[in-house]
Amino acid sequence: MTLTLPAAAALPLDSLVTFTPEGIASRVLGKASGGNLTLFAFDAGQGLTEHTSPFDAFVLVLDGALALTIGGEAVAATPGTIVRLPATVPHALEATTRTRMLLVMLKDTPTQERANAQP
Length: 119
Hints:
- The chain is mainly beta.
- 6% of the residues lie in helices and 50% in strands.
- It has a single domain (15-110), classed as Jelly Rolls (Sandwich).
- It has a six-stranded antiparallel β-sheet, with no helix packed on it.
- The longest helix has 7 residues, at 111-117.
- The model has no long low-confidence stretch (mean pLDDT 92).
């Protein structure tokens, strides 16, 4: 597992990634075989074009607002909301204002990997 945060420290999320004018900034906070945790900062009007992922993802809006499309359905996300992006379903997002979001991606590990990982 790769972690980029110190242990036993309470860190303000808004200090871990800064906005880029007319751009997108991201920082991987943790990565493991079962998924990853990434913090994003989108300037207004920036986003991710439609794509798919082989595993489920969860978007947690920290500040700002996102317009998402998931399998052709429009979803508005605001601070304090969570949105699930199902595996293999096309999705896209755009920040309607400057927005920070936390992206949690989870994938099921094969049974043998889980068995080997147990103490």
